[in-house]
Amino acid sequence: MLRPSRLARPVARASARPALPPTTSRALLSQRASTRATQDFDLNKLNNKRRDYERNRTAFLAAGAIAGIMSFIYTAWKLKKALDVQSEKDKIAVKCDAPIPTEAFKTEAGEKRKVVLHDEEGREIVPTGYSVVPAFPRTMDLDLPGASTADGPVAASVSNNAGVEYTLVGLGMRTVTFIGIQVYLVGFYVATQDIERLQHYLVKKINPLATTLIPSEKDALRKALRDAAEGEQTWDSILREAGCRTAFRIVPVRDTDFHHLRDGFVRAIQARSGRDNAYGDEAFGAAMKEFKMLFNRGQVPKRKELLLSRDANGTLAVLYGEGGHKQQTGRSLMGTISEERLSRLLWLNYLAGDKVASEGARDNIIEGIMEFVERPVGTVATQIL
């Protein structure tokens, strides 16, 4: 038989433990749930976290942008230093290995004179100061379709079966971007038999009674040609009225292409034509389209020759090829543009205005002009011969 007393002890002990009140348990659960809900739905805390995230994100992006700009500037600076070092090495190499000097002008009796040398074949050349294209021909012959020659002893002397002779006035380097990347050398030529017309116009501009200019008058002309407004007006009148046949000889010093050259020419023309409503007609627009089509070609290797020629009527002729001094071998006519205004604006891009394609070329051309006007009108062509 079971003993009732032993079975009753565990029940008694269990019943003797104090039981938690139901209200206390519910309060604890309610407090935990309330705290969790408060943490999950604390909008202010979430907004603060979002604001901190956006602030940190903006700071990191700004720091990245600044670091990118600084690295770009530093890389450009290092590239410029490397190009300068290489340029100095090239100049030293030219001085040591070649007899061609690096200066296009020399000073004699206080006046600048163009340095003229003779190559191995006895032809006259003018040093450029750059090793890739060390010299330009002092004179060159151009045989253009439809070109007419004037009568007279000088005209007969400077025209032959090879074409009309042109004389170098000045040259310079075309550079782009703020670090001055060299693109091409450009030289300005005038038909030898037309130098008298150019002399006459420039001398009469300063002194209508003179046939040559004295040093003070040369300084006045030099100042006028360097002035943006007066220089552009002077050259614009010469190109319109003097009837001088001129040409620009362009020789790249690095590999380029026709599209790159065309874009530079077109931007220069549009920058000037956009300032005057007189260039908004259909004829000028058609000439621009035709001009662009001439340059739909491929690559232009360095040392190749591109010639832009302007005749007495303002017709533009574009030639490309080997070229050189007196020979025509390798030159081919790319096309012609009869619109006088287009060639005039393209010429002004090198000769005058607030911004020209090459400051060095303009200054060099002005110094070449000074050599012309210090001699009596009509004598330069005979001295070149």
Automatic annotation (TrEMBL):
Keywords: Membrane, Transmembrane, Transmembrane helix. This is Chalcone isomerase domain-containing protein. PANTHER family: FATTY-ACID-BINDING PROTEIN 2. Residues 23-32 have a biased composition (Polar residues). SUPFAM superfamilies: Chalcone isomerase (SSF54626). Residues 1-32 are annotated as: Disordered. It comes from the Eukaryota. GO terms for molecular function: intramolecular lyase activity. The chain crosses the membrane at residues 59-77. Residues 165-366 form the Chalcone isomerase domain. Residues 1-18 have a biased composition (Low complexity). It comes from Metarhizium acridum (strain CQMa 102).
